[in-house]
């Protein structure tokens, strides 16, 4: 998980708001005979005409626990040595290089990097107080990444008590410098309407900054606003285009909503086969809604040949995830015992994994 993604989760949790979509979104209806059953709060993203491209693979910082490679990878021209060391797992080297740059050049980016190292405990003992001090020094010199990082610490109450006012000011300053994640999180505050008067137009503007920079959560949220015409003129085609980009960017809710848009031909050329592919992606990632819709598709054979065993398998998995569906229960009762037995056996590993995930950790 990248630092930016981690901080967005922290802020959304502190606000008590859904990470992906404000409560404004409403999903497109799908024929009950094909994709009926329960449905959660909206999540969507489409694109006009052409079939979807393969899902993009986002770059990630190596996991903290991962050992560094045996030999350093040579730097490319213009690559920042300190940040390159961080990304390749050479945390002590990153610390040394950043410290030297601060001491020799009073380097603002190096200050922000030191904040990152102390906040995460990479190459040093984790220390929120020192991390916040470095972020503050960099933020005071105009570094937008440091502003954002410090805002997330203030929002989470680290190292001092939660200070949402201070966090909002920092987010505003970073958003003015076009920081994508700061813009996204500030938009959530405008939707929430507590620190600022609720303002959908301002939220849409901020989501737009982050969406343009490729932030899938912002693309999904902005799609919801376009779908409802809140803060922007209602535009189903634009909503679907944004949903598509969020979906290929890995937003699971957008994958579900874009699949539904494809299935219905809402804001995009109708493509039941393409819709099934997006539902499969989301289903394999644990979306009970996608699993339920996929079960309906496989039960009747639209977008993919009918397959009662697969249909019932996905129904059982989605049901274990909380998506009850009387129509699929009835479909299951109509099948031969051997079909239900095969489906139950196929579903069992996923159901067991769900059960283990819900067990309290000791």
Give structural notes.
The chain is mostly helical. It folds into two domains: 1-30 and 37-47 and 59-65 and 73-252, Serine Threonine Protein Phosphatase 5, Tetratricopeptide repeat; 271-357, no CATH class. 62% of the residues lie in helices and 0% in strands. It is built from 18 helices and no strands. The protein is elongated, with a radius of gyration of 23 Å.
Topology:
Elements: H1 3-15, H2 32-35, H3 81-87, H4 91-105, H5 108-120, H6 128-140, H7 144-156, H8 164-176, H9 180-192, H10 200-212, H11 216-228, H12 236-248, H13 252-264, H14 272-284, H15 288-300, H16 308-320, H17 326-333, H18 337-358
The CATH topology of the largest domain turns out to be Serine Threonine Protein Phosphatase 5, Tetratricopeptide repeat
Radius of gyration: 23 Å
Q: What is the end-to-end distance?
A: 24 Å
**Order of SSEs:** HHHHHHHHHHHHHHHHHH
* Number of E-state strands: 0
Poorly predicted runs of 5 or more residues: 1-78
Mass-distribution shape: elongated
Number of helices: 18
The CATH first-level class of the largest domain comes to Mainly Alpha
Mean pLDDT: 83
What is the CATH architecture descriptor of the largest domain? Alpha Horseshoe
Give the full name of the CATH homologous superfamily of the largest domain.
Tetratricopeptide repeat domain
